Amino acid sequence: MEAEHIEILEFIKRYPPFNELPDEELERLAQAAEVGYFKADSKILEYNQIINDLHVIRSGVVEVYRHTGDLHNRLSDGGFFGEAGLLRTGKVRFPVTAIEDTLIYFIPGTQFNRLYDEYEAFADAVEIEDRERLNRAVTSREGANDLMTVPIANLLSRAPVSISENATIREAAEKMTSDEVSSLLIVAEADAPSSEATATTEQGSEALSGTAANSSIETPNIGTPIGIITDKDLRKRVLAVGLSEQTPVHEVMSTDLVFVQHNQHVFEAMLIMLRCNLHHLPVLKKDKTVGVLSLSDVVRHESKSSLFVVSSIFRQNSIEELATLVNDVQASFVRMVAEDANSRMIGSAMAVIGRSFKQRLLELGEEKFGPPPVPYCFLALGSMARDEQSIVTDQDNAMVLDNSFDPEKHDEYFRQLAQFVSDGLDACGYTYCTGYIMATNPQWRQPLKVWQKYFTDWIDEPTPESLLHASIFFDLDGVWGKLEFANVLNKLIQRRAQRSNRFLACMARNALNRTPPLGFFKDFVMEKDGKHNNSINTKRRGTAPVADLIRVHSLAIGSLARNSFARLEDITEAGILPPGRGPDLRDALEFISMVRIRHQALALQQGEKPDNNVAPSDLSDFERKNLKDAFQILSSAQRFMRFRYPNG
Amino acid sequence: MFYLGSGQNANTPSEPNNLKGTGKIPTPPGNDWQTRFLELAETAEDPRLKRFYQAGIDAGITDPTTKLSDVPLLSIDFETTGFDPKKHGIVSIGSIPFNLKRIFNQQAKHWLAKPRRSLNTESIVVHGITHSQIQQAPDLLDILDDLFEVISGHLLVVHYRGIERPFLDVALRERIGEGIQFPVIDTMQLEARMHRVKPLSLWQRMLGKKETSIRLADSRSRYNLPWYHPHDAVTDALATAELLQAQIAYHYAEETTLADVWC
């Protein structure tokens, strides 16, 4: 009689790549599996040995190494290894050692290869190429991008407010005032929340029992209302015609209600409002009224869009007024994340908003201090210049003044203006730059010729130290004033940088200062030296090193693009990276950026202060796996950069 | 692991701590299985038994100097209706061949058998085996050919030697008129060697000190082996095979010979 291998079957069906296989395949695998025990510190696979099985960790912990001896990965229960060798040469590529007592289930290579060919999901889950898996993750998310998907229920912020049909108009108006609503649902006397009438209908008894359970408080939802009155009705049907305030509401209410379902999309509700010329729609969920959607709810929802924020920035007339928009900025950020915008859209929307704040502040400043004595250009630096801003950002800016600038006569004006803008930005959530890279710093408030000398010195006489804090100036964008000054500087950089191997080597060396972690292990971030950390700074260890690396290549090929994705397109076109690496880096940057952005959006939604530190326990298995892949792509791109720009 | 408790002995510990237990198999003086198998290969009447002894000699499982790593091992587990081979019967057998590196599930076997005794109680408790499955199962006699095919040429590995060897011996006596003898490796006894070198003194017992548990699951956890659901013959056989691999990895050298571990 064939034996059933219950334990093995129950185990493998829980883990990828097996969890999507049909039952009969799982049973076949459980039958075919072999088992072996490895004491802690014993070798499981040695480099180049013949490999015949996929190794699945039933329990224990193993470490996977590169051929060079560097730690490549650490795996525990449910992890698998050996797939690279099986799919390619039949020899072990990554040696493996048990670091705790480990029990391995061996899946025969013949079965593994067959499943890999027959089942796409299995092959996907195995996917030996980290970069391919990441690319799939990024594209599947982009496919979900649809701005029309928000359901009505998301906009409802309160339970419906209702009153009995026999209440007077005055009572209705009082209730609308005390509850701060612009409309009131009218329910049959029997359904009314405060009614003591005996229930006569089925619907009535339902409502009554609901009322009893909640004493005299509003029930969270009510039965079908028979009518509605609005602010406008009170004006047009009562005041304008001189009706008594003692008239029962049912005489002035609108009947023929138009309902929407809670799970319909907001845009459908908007169409209904337009078509029927209504401003209030009761919302139903399974025959219960769960709220009223008003036009103002829709407008408020729309107002969270970044375009709306930008236009309102230019309507504010003081720092205090601008500062009131901080919540709108955060709301539009959260909303873009909720609607699945990609990091490039979000990064550029946030940069546009940030730039608008600067522009409006400079406008206000020039009103306050008068027109500038000599022409100037206000610069955005760093992430804003790259269109890659997040919600957690400080202000990095500078001023380029006309060469006719005379410090004695003019500097006081620009000092005041810079201070005004800097204080304003701080009030609007863009904190002061801790590195003091701001126009308030006299060093970064200089005439064009001085700036030209700064850049010439950085590029022609570079040392890693002199460039350590200068790399931010190589992402430079004019936001206000004489934008030609910014163009002159960008052209200078473009011309000189690509000719100076020493400069590129120094920039490359600095770009290697920040490295990604190796990956995750249980709830820790694992570093290359095997140490554990509780969280990872997704900027310092992720997006920033990717941007640094892309900047170096971009300078080397003389690209004028500033956005990392745009730069990467130029770099890929220039053909200086090994084939396929450009798209890999793009996917890595996108994925790390989105993890960071989602983390910040979640913090905002929970009323916490957003930051860059993500704890592994907050990541899904999917995110961990893809983040780890992204880190590996970044690591290998850094290795390549070291080789591409050797120290002169 | 090895008995389907019937009502009458529900209080019996599932793994008695007394290792001498009920196993009454005559192990040869000095564990001289070589001589014993040669004798039995001569004297056994049933051709299957004769072949079993001869295959054991040929495979080297009777030679005390054979290295454990060179021997084909077979982990075997019986589910029985109780502890006494004279009163209880075998209802299920699971077996898996293995060596110190690999356990071969593909060749695992599982049989159900209908015991000739002890089916009168209302409750064959049933660890995945239903009363009607047992009623429909063949008599052990009908699966003997297959069973001998599987066990011949292998050194058997059990967790607690007081069950499989004596139960098979008694069952064969009743069915073919002669019993069976063979060496086993008992993972429970190996565990006892590690953890019960001396019985607890009166003083230790007064202090409330408890003997280290050498039950299968507890033994496994000492080697960080995962917990498996007990009372399925195949799973228990797998669990025992894994335990032996772990014990050898921890406590024995590569060149361990049969003399070091069998009984």
Descriptive overview:
The complex is a heterodimer of chains A (648) and B (263). Chain A has 648 residues and is an alpha+beta fold. Chain A folds into four domains: 6-128, Jelly Rolls; 159-257, CBS-domain; 342-494, Beta Polymerase, domain 2; 509-644, Four Helix Bundle (Hemerythrin (Met), subunit A), CATH 1.20.120. In chain A, 47% of the residues lie in helices and 15% in strands. Chain A is built from 24 helices and 23 strands. Chain A has a four-stranded antiparallel β-sheet with strand order 1-8-3-6. A four-stranded antiparallel β-sheet of chain A has the order 2-7-4-5, with no helix packed on it. In chain A, strand 13 and strand 14 (288-294) form a beta hairpin. In chain A, helix 22 (564-574) runs antiparallel to helix 23. Chain A is flat and about 95 Å long. In chain A, 43% of the residues are buried. The model of chain A is unreliable at 139-147 and 195-220 (pLDDT under 50). Chain B has a five-stranded mixed β-sheet with strand order 4-2-1-5-6. Chain B is globular and about 50 Å long. Helix content of chain B is 39%, strand content 11%. Residues 1-23 of chain B have low confidence and may be disordered. Chain B is α/β, with parallel strands linked by helices and 263 residues long. Chain B has ten helices and six strands. Chain B has one domain: Ribonuclease H-like superfamily/Ribonuclease H (Nucleotidyltransferase, domain 5). Chains A and B meet through helix 1, helix 2 and strand 1 of A and strand 2, strand 3, strand 4 and helix 9 of B. Strand 1 of chain A pairs antiparallel with strand 3 of chain B, so a sheet runs across the interface.
